[in-house]
Amino acid sequence: xxxxxxxxxxxxxxxxxxxxxxxxxxxxxxxxxxxxxxxxxxxxxxxxxxxxxxxxxxxxxxxxxxxxxxxxxxxxxxxxxxxxxxxxxxxxxxxxxxxxxxxxxxxxxxxxxxxxxxxxxxxxxxxxxxxxxxxxxxxxxxxxxxxxxxxxxxxxxxxxxxxxxxxxxxxxxxxxxxxxxxxxxxxxxxxxxxxxxxxxxxxxxxxxxxxxxxxxxxxxxxxxxxxxxxxxxxxxxxxxxxxxxxxxxxxxxxxxxxxxxxxxxxxxxxxxxxxxxxxxxxxxxxxxxxxxxxxxxxxxxxxxxxxxxxxxxxxxxxxxxxxxxxxxxxxxxxxxxxxxxxxxxxxxxxxxxxxxxxxxxxxxxxxxxxxxxxxxxxxxxxxxxxxxxxxxxxxxxxxxxxxxxxxxxxxxxxxxxxxxxxxxxxxxxxxxxxxxxxxxxxxxxxxxxxxxxxxxxxxxxxxxxxxxxxxxxxxxxxxxxxxxxxxxxxxxxxxxxxxxxxxxxxxxxxxxxxxxxxxxxxxxxxxxxxxxxxxxxxxxxxxxxxxxxxxxxxxxxxxxxxxxxxxxxxxxxxxxxxxxxxxxxxxxxxxxxxxxxxxxxxxxxxxxxxxxxxxxxxxxxxxxxxxxxxxxxxxxxxxxxxxxxxxxxxxxxxxxxxxxxxxxxxxxxxxxxxxxxxxxxxxxxxxxxxxxxxxxxxxxxxxxxxxxxxxxxxxxxxxxxxxxxxxxxxxxxxxxxxxxxxxxxxxxxxxxxxxxx
Length: 757
Ligand code: ZN
Ligand code: ZN
Ligand code: FE
What we know:
By secondary structure, this protein is α/β, with parallel strands linked by helices. It folds into four domains: about 1-85, CATH 3.30.70.100; about 180-365, DHBP synthase (Alpha-Beta Complex), CATH 3.90.870.40; about 385-490 and about 735-755, Nucleotidyltransferase, domain 5, CATH 3.30.420; about 530-690, Tetracycline Repressor, domain 2, CATH 1.10.357. It has 23 helices and 32 strands. The strands form five sheets. Strands 6, 7, 8, 9, 10, 11, 12, 13, 14, 15, 16 and 17 form a twelve-stranded mixed beta sheet that branches. β2 (about 25-30) and β3 (about 35-40) form a beta hairpin. α13 packs across α23 and α20 (about 650-665) packs antiparallel against α21 (about 670-695). The longest helix is centred in the last third of the chain and has 27 residues, at about 670-695. The site of one zinc ion (ZN) has 7 residues, from α3.
């Protein structure tokens, strides 16, 4: 019998062994590159019972395996059942396993003073511990992981070989005698001699120091989350003024004490994946205000490694836990690299000697309308496959976009999305992109024959795709890929009204799109409507400086009269800088046109005085969402213009409404709510128009703007009330982190259509 799927690294071989022994069967089980090979001999009825029992045996948290059974004449050669050495021939067809949160039994041993693994920060078993980040190549055997350098002591060896032990064939097995060890180094990388590196780190954290902590998928920077000064120091050294930082708390009670936690959110927090969950802060939250300034939510996670548990036992307070990197690149994961990149940031390094083979950031999720939505799909989700609605006839590599990059490797209907790699304009991130593609190819035994990519000619992912030899190329328009990603996320393949709103994406006409209404399926799309195209004065600079968009929209509404408006925005506007920009717009110099929804949010945020420049993508929009009242009585009107190029939403009308409210001294929180409600109304109105014209009654919502819970929740409710079937993202992010899945789905659809024709 062969079993495939997620069968390695989850304790399946020992489970099979125990069942075979229970049913008095002889034979063997072994890992192969295609899955598990089980050979049993014995009484036919006993074999039938064995198969029945195996049916109900899904390894902890694992996806149920597929199996195929072949019957042979008994050979009568074997007397007992055994676990045999892995076979390493043939083409790999395995599914590698994600990293797994420490299990209850290991946790109990960690705190049991009489257990020989008491306080061992690397306690694992056959169902828990690191996997994806330590596997160099498959099949999953110890000598193919970064545990290869640790020789088991006799006690561990005995457990490893004992079929009734829960560490039977646990490849990551170790104990204080034979396993990895912790060390402490100062900010310059010099070894500090201490009997208890965890206690020493805890004391340093308590006194406001910053400690780099080596974890499963990379380095975190930690500090006491209740100390404003410590957080300020971390921010200053990391050159990260205001980007929200995640917080690690001891348990659910500690999360409840600081945030409002629904039942669904509690389940997500304590799920085996242990993602960072965005939760609404309580007014009484003791976390320093500069951890997540000016936004409603706090990113909270629970401990997922034995080291986290020990650290939190020692400090007894919430810890900031942020990726150990200087800017928006991949998390630092190699010791030499981390010491080099983080010296000057961390005061102390809490290290261990188990190498990390693959960097992997924490995943981020939130609950909107009772459903979990991944915002960053990384640790504990990667490399689980997502099933495509259509099989790719040939292996596909989808390269993703530029920011928040992930790529996807496709084998048949299975799309393997990579971990979060970050902003590819950053050298570290680009190198991980290239390395990770090679790693995934090797892990999955897949050589891509087709490469799918964005249409943006300057994205490094596009340049990478263009540099590959001997592959077929499939270019996929950015917003089409967003909608396809949403369809694939929902497992459907049908024509929808695709609403793709984001910061920017290369349009089919070469302009910067971002407020799009597409009539789309996996094969192709038609641009049915879009936000009014407005100048983006200074190009990328306008993305970093929302005031430019505010001024541009005011000019679109009021022309030169904008200078006479009695607005705080006008009073603080740098008139000389704006004059220069106006001239550039008039001459069409470095002022491309955009329909971006993200830039509309920026403009409103700036008019409301939230911020005129940003530090990270989406910041102004996040603050605008945080400001908005939960409900509103009225909306602004926005005309819909029929043009040859489809419906155009007159976004300057919305700005006019905002300005009138500002002149009436309407509270900003009310204006923010009205603005959000206006966009919900636009979504419903435009969807109505397209449905009337085409009969298409399903809507897919995608693009980074739909990370906004106010907008997503409102749009879902209103569209459903209006009789639309609505698809939104759950398993992959709506932002560019999910784009590769859409590119993969489009490529699979086009290739299979072509092969049939
Ligand atoms: Zn365990
Ligand atoms: Zn040992
Ligand atoms: Fe996008």
